[in-house]
Structure prediction request, 270 residues.
Amino acid sequence: MTKGANEHRGAPARVVFADDDAILRELLRGLLGFLPHVTVVGEAVDGIEAVQLVAQHYPDTVLLDIGMPRLDGFGAAEVIRSFRPQTRLMLHTAEPDDEKRRRAKALGLPLLDKLQLNATTDLVEQYAVSDEHPLATDIEPLVLVALANRADAGVLVVKADESIPFYNPAVAAVLDLPFPPERVTVADLRARGVLGLRADGSPYPLEEQPLAQALTGRTPVTDVVYLHAEDGSLRPFTMTSLPFFNPGGELIGVANYVTDPHHPSLRITS
Prediction:
């Protein structure tokens, strides 16, 4: 049965918030502390720490500042959604411009104005009395390592057993994968056939691409893969695959980064 507006779980909703501004964190801590159906279980100073707190504390709601170091709010939201898809996510910013609204809308998330904190706390309280959601599996540490290195690129993480615990919307758009992410493997990618072309338009089989080469060769591999743009032309993307090892020297996985060589600082958009 769906809970009414004035009903709530016996235990308060668990909330994590993230902002690199210490003064705003103190203000949020105080305001959220007054909400009757909420308990703050973690506060983070950047997106990587926010993801770690979500993996640790299983919050019901997460409030993310957009402009954070190491991993911004958009990137943190993408990661959290990949391993805790039912967690309520909210974004806030001091400058809610059109581009931020567009990106928030693409993720299906509310974008709130930091100057209107009452609206933020109202939404947190609203979420607190909504239905409880099941929890998904914990995040893979390798995903955090991969994102800490190049959070602004398209990222696809492959474990040594060839399972894929994470990919972000940029890679989903390029490889035509579902988003929010589904659990897939390299075998699933193989079954999709050719995932790219060479400069002359000939097929570039997955087994010859950097991702597979880095898995088998245990060394970094970079190459250019051509993909069809919306207008039918071939567009080059740099694919860099970096293997990661545990302290004993065993391969734990490969982080595969996809960037536009002409605009390496830009995210890939669909």
User: Anything to note?
Assistant: The longest strand covers residues 234-245.
